[in-house]
Specification:
The protein folds into 3 domains: 209 residues, no CATH class; 113 residues, no CATH class; 63 residues, no CATH class. Helix content is 58%, strand content 2%. The protein is built from 17 helices and 4 strands. Helix 14 crosses helix 17. The longest helix is centred in the N-terminal third of the chain and has 30 residues. The protein is elongated, with a radius of gyration of 27 Å.
Length: 423
């Protein structure tokens, strides 16, 4: 009977993930192959194998009347399984569903397939890779079916089940209780631990994405110098849309020294207060981090989760056209491809308010994403392009295509980066 349960449930998981794989958008299909369907199925097989082993222990004691040891092993195994499900559920909901909700395609979150995947993820977190992730959700530089380090770490929460169950079943066999199913289940768990866990640990350790978005002011100065020497240079499309490398708190007295954080905040607060309905980056560190996180919802700065408070302040200021480094004389400003974000946003709001044809609610309390979604109906933007764009890029798309608002910075040859931005 237990073999039937294992076979039927594993086939259902296989069919579900195969269906989701066939229905994926192209950017996910490039990362997730059909082999990943088998990976999720094997991970489920490991879970259902341990669950069935627990059921066998109770069946052996209460139905077949075997020794009391089976009851003890069954109770311990049930506690392990319940504890692991609670831990995995908490991490899936808290560290994936809530923390990265903006990275999940909203048009699929209410589908039965996603809801089923969510329940399965609480017992088999490998299935997280099949969530409907947006194109911009993928932060790891190494090719991986998982979009970010949080997803990889959450899949490792399955160790709360695998390691205790492995030890328990070894003790069961060592105590003189032998059966073929326990031996096979033990071997399969050992293989899972060796391959799946080792692969994820290597990904977390070796992926250079953890340094994404971080460079010293010295690097920025060198980058500025190179751009003046070779004005034809252009970064990759991703880098251009994402913006120049962010500033860290490292100091260099040779090329560029970063301004004190308090001095940057003095320039930052008037802009955020005016554009974001009185918001200021002030108070305790935790309060400042919350305020910066709300700004990040629109600015979409790469490498954000790996930055400390000072780095986040510098990065937000840079996005809003505020000088964050003191450069040597005649070195010019840090070159940038796009205009400060708040200027584009402010011009877009003014155009909408002045338009007699566009009927869209413009209030300071309304979520900016909802405002952009309403304006999308007036623009020639493909759904696939819209879904794969973050808030910042959507702002640029609407501003450019609806009102021809300039989003790119004008650059004068030989004077790259020498701009003035009103606030």
């Amino acid at each position: 009977m237990h073999y039937v349960i294992i076979g039927v449930t594993t086939f259902c998981i296989f069919a579900l993930t195969l269906f989701v794989r066939l229905d994926m958008k192209e950017h996910q299909k490039k990362r997730i192959g059909y082999l990943n369907v088998l990976v999720v199925s094997f991970a489920w097989l490991d879970f259902i194998g341990d669950l069935t082993w627990t059921w066998q222990r109770f069946h052996a004691h209460y139905v077949r009347g075997e020794q009391e040891d089976n009851q003890i092993f069954g109770i311990v195994s049930a506690v392990i399984m319940a504890n692991s499900i609670v831990v995995m559920s908490y991490n899936v909901v808290g560290k994936i569903l809530i923390k990265h909700k903006k990275s999940i395609s909203h048009d699929k979150v209410t589908s039965y397939a996603f809801i089923t995947l969510l329940f399965v993820a609480c017992t088999d977190p490998e299935v997280i890779m099949f969530f409907p992730w947006n194109k911009n959700a993928y932060k790891l530089e190494l090719k991986s079916p998982f979009p970010n380090g949080d997803c990889v770490r959450v899949t490792l929460m399955k160790l709360w089940e695998d390691i205790p169950e492995f030890i328990l079943q070894v003790v069961y066999l060592a105590s003189g209780n032998f059966d073929v199913f326990t031996l096979l289940n033990l071997i399969f768990t050992m293989v899972m631990l060796m391959y799946f866990v080792a692969g994820k640990l290597l990904l977390l350790v070796l992926d250079p994405g953890k340094d994404e978005g971080e460079s010293s002011p010295s690097d920025l100065g060198v980058h500025n110098k190179q751009n003046r020497i070779r004005p034809g240079n252009s970064p990759s499309p991703r880098a251009e849309e994402s913006r120049p490398a962010q500033v860290t708190r490292k100091r260099s007295f040779k090329i560029a020294a970063e301004l004190p954080m308090m001095q940057i905040l003095d320039k930052l607060d008037p802009i955020t207060s005016k554009v974001w309905n009185g918001k200021k980056v002030t108070g305790a560190p935790e309060e400042m981090m919350l305020a910066l996180a709300e700004l990040q919802d629109e600015l979409c700065i790469p490498g954000w989760e790996h930055m400390n408070l000072a780095q986040k302040v510098s990065s937000v200021a840079h996005e809003l056209g505020i000088e964050t480094v003191k450069t040597p004389k005649n070195s010019g400003r840090i070159p940038r491809k796009y205009r400060p974000y708040h200027l584009v946003k402010r011009e877009l709001i003014k155009e909408v308010e002045a338009s007699a044809r566009i009927k869209v609610e413009v209030t300071s309390s309304r979520p900016w994403g909802d405002f952009l979604n309403d304006l999308k109906a007036y623009c020639d933007v493909d759904d696939s392009e819209w879904d794969s764009s973050d808030i910042r890029k959507r702002t640029h798309l609407v501003a450019d295509r609806l009102f021809k608002i300039r989003v790119k910075e004008k650059q004068t040859k030989g004077l790259m980066g020498l701009f003035h931005w009103p606030v």
